[in-house]
């Protein structure tokens, strides 16, 4: 099954070829710089710049829309609430900045292989070796978290399907138990597989 | 290859009975099959071969290395392929997963990329390098799992029911891959026809090795047990 998480999409664009470290740095700068956005016009310009990034990376509009869709559950209520409390101008800045930041982060993961991102994290965490922390382990942890997303989505879909096949209505409580059991079983299996592949220390 | 089981028994913590009992065995052949009913102890036996499970009593040694004391060195020599490939794919894309096992081997990036490309091409995954691993078909996932093990070039490959979740076409792909390997292979399976050309087949029943011999006789013995 497919998930909407922003995982790498192969490509040869300028953004695909840019070093992962530079892209992460840019993401950091964008995050810090976003506090300077103060007017709807500035926010709109930032959004246009982000969308230009998608165009440069040749990311299909359908992928862009699938990235935005889950955000609407947060942005729409937030926008309405902010409009009532502080007015439409401030509301558009707040929701626009959140949208732009999420889309930038998504663009980084869409154009960067996970291994490259992990390599950066491992390099950045290198000095932590002095205090007994293994940077490779941090990288592996991040990687497994990313890998777990489609696995857990698949598990949830299987459980829901099995319940429907038995004529049951979808119930959160009835999903929770097999989901937790299934997730723990998967974690055990993954641990065993990691040990089998030499990552057992 | 020389694998030796000496007085091996294993009891899982909290379990009242042993899953493998009093096993003395020497394995040297190139193709070894393992069959038996569910719960007969064959998967535990398989996991003892690369130290994933250390026996409660007795010793298992692989080419002279005790799996209890030299587990990591043993696992460098013994690759393990699980039934469900989703359990062993740890990276988001195909090439990244194959490269994962090479991360700690002191190879340069171009060397890793070359090994990955060769391995993917050898197992029908050419052109899939940047494909999300979780979107592959079941058969492709199992070939990816196999590629990810073989890229490290282990001397021995243990496979625990690798065709159980596959259709006939993909089962044949896995079988063809096994036939072309230079590695020693120990295959745990319920697909008895896969073992016809094997050198030796072990039959497990109720935690004990009950037959050890040529495929035809072993399958006959196993079918007799099931009546």
Automatic annotation (TrEMBL), chain A:
Principal cellular location given in the protein's record: membrane
Highest taxon, organism lineage: Bacteria
Keywords: Membrane, Transmembrane, Transmembrane helix
Subcellular location as annotated: Membrane
Sequence intervals crossing the membrane: 20-37, 43-64, 94-122
Membrane topology classification: Multi-pass membrane protein
Keyword Transport: no
Protein name: Energy-coupling factor transporter transmembrane protein EcfT
Source species taxonomy: Bacteria, Bacillati, Actinomycetota, Actinomycetes, Propionibacteriales
Automatic annotation (TrEMBL), chain B:
Organism: Nocardioides dubius
SUPFAM superfamilies, alphabetized: P-loop containing nucleoside triphosphate hydrolases
Protein name: ABC transporter ATP-binding protein
Keyword hit for Membrane: no
A UniProt-annotated Pfam family: ABC_tran
This protein's UniProt keywords: ATP-binding, Nucleotide-binding, Transport
Every ABC transporter domain range: 3-226
Top-level taxon of the source organism: Bacteria
CDD domains: ABC_cobalt_CbiO_domain1
Family statement: Belongs to the ABC transporter superfamily.
A GO molecular-function annotation: ATP binding
InterPro entries on file: AAA+_ATPase, ABC_transporter-like_ATP-bd, ABC_transporter-like_CS, ABC_transpr_CbiO/EcfA_su, ECF_ABC_transporter_ATP-bd, P-loop_NTPase
